[in-house]
Amino acid sequence: MLLTAAETQGRYGSGAGQEFPTQYMLDYWRPGVHGWIRYKNRRGEQLLTGNTDTTTPVYRPLEPPIVASKIRFVPFSIYARTMCMRVEVYGCENKQGLLSYSMPQGSPIDGLDFRDEIYENAAEDSDLLTDGLGQLSDGIVAMSIPDMIGHEEDSAALNKPW
Length: 162
Hints:
It is built from 1 helix and 11 strands, in the order βββββββββββα. The chain has one helix at 135-138, and strands at residues 2-9, 23-29, 37-38, 48-49, 58-67, 70-76, 86-92, 101-104, 108-109, 112-113, 128-132. It has 2 domains: 2-92, Jelly Rolls, CATH 2.60.120.260; 101-157, no CATH class. Strands 2, 3, 4 and 6 form a 4-stranded antiparallel sheet that branches. A 3-stranded antiparallel sheet has the order 5-1-7, with no helix packed on it. By secondary structure, the chain is an all-beta fold.
């Protein structure tokens, strides 16, 4: 599945409690990857903002989206408390199958940083990124670059996915 958003809501319980998560984390499982992977958004944050009350649903786009066969919601609070959450997951079937690549990690050059900060399979002791899904899955849209393969001169080609 390609998961694009999550929606959470607490438990109302006739006003008897404050049973909702103010923050949560997402773990996901993908065939071919060993173990659960902790989701990070484009800013590298693992903790996602949850609810502020028991009744209002909170819709949270997943940027980047997740390709997974299983997902796990992990409620989080800095205080000991009871938390209940209703969840909805938005997305679609991933019919293209899982394609991946391996490449060296980017590096800073002339004040520009080409490192992938949200790469999910980066080993701490390696400069090689393996089993990546690439730009076609993470929602990044390329700008028109004259040297780009398949470059088209017309303005309709600008801001299209590769």
